[in-house]
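Q: Sequence in, structure out?
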Amino acid sequence: MQTAFTVVVVLLALLYILSIVWVVRDAYLRGTTWYIWGIVALVPLVGLIAYLLLRPPMLRIDRDEQELEIALKQRQLMNYGECATCGYPVDVNYVICPSCHTQLKNLCAHCERALEPAWTICPYCATSVAGAKDTTIHKPRSRRSRSQRPSADSK
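A: Exactly. Output:
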């Protein structure tokens, strides 16, 4: 009888130690402060139950993977918009809405690329857009530092 009692006590002590190890390992994988949960798990049975009730719902690797999937979905959705007239989902490169045939963008007469309606010049080939208000092509300014610019006193 005493041998059976000793075996049960040893098994309970082993189960207690393994539960502490499991709590520490699981808390580490979930990205929490594992050493604090290890101290809480030292309280027999109550510490284990407290950890099971309060632990984060997902492992850190699963949470990171879910965040990556959400970021990928948001990036894919950025390629789409809606037609202002009918609300049909349209790609950013669409020139005309496939549903209501509303013109979404203009086409460049020279390179035939899609242009935003507000653009007055094609950024791809520098051709003026027909019917635009400003048709002058401005040359980019040279970027000189303040020390290289002529001062008002030198004139």
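The radius of gyration is 34 Å.
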